[in-house]
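Thread: "does anyone have the structure for this chain?"

Original post by V.I.:
We have the sequence but no experimental structure in hand. Need at least a predicted one for the grant figures.
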Amino acid sequence: MSELPDYELMEIIPVTDIDLALISVAEYETLEILSDSRTLADLRQSRVDFDSDATFDMAEVRAELEKRCGGEA
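Reply from O.Q.:
Generated one for you, tokens below.
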């Protein structure tokens, strides 16, 4: 039997009037993210920021973390 990566085998019990789909954990997590409008808005904004070069280098990130954490970054 071939292995199914990212899938957990489970028993599906047929129930009338209910549709079931067997999906991987990764696919479920993707659906969860795609159904969250705030997360999608954040992802869209990050793409805009990246495309406009509105990003931070590691030194800037570290300095901001140190400022926020009281020098413990």
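V.I.: this helps a lot. The chain has a mean pLDDT of 81.
O.Q.: and The two ends are 49 Å apart (CA to CA).
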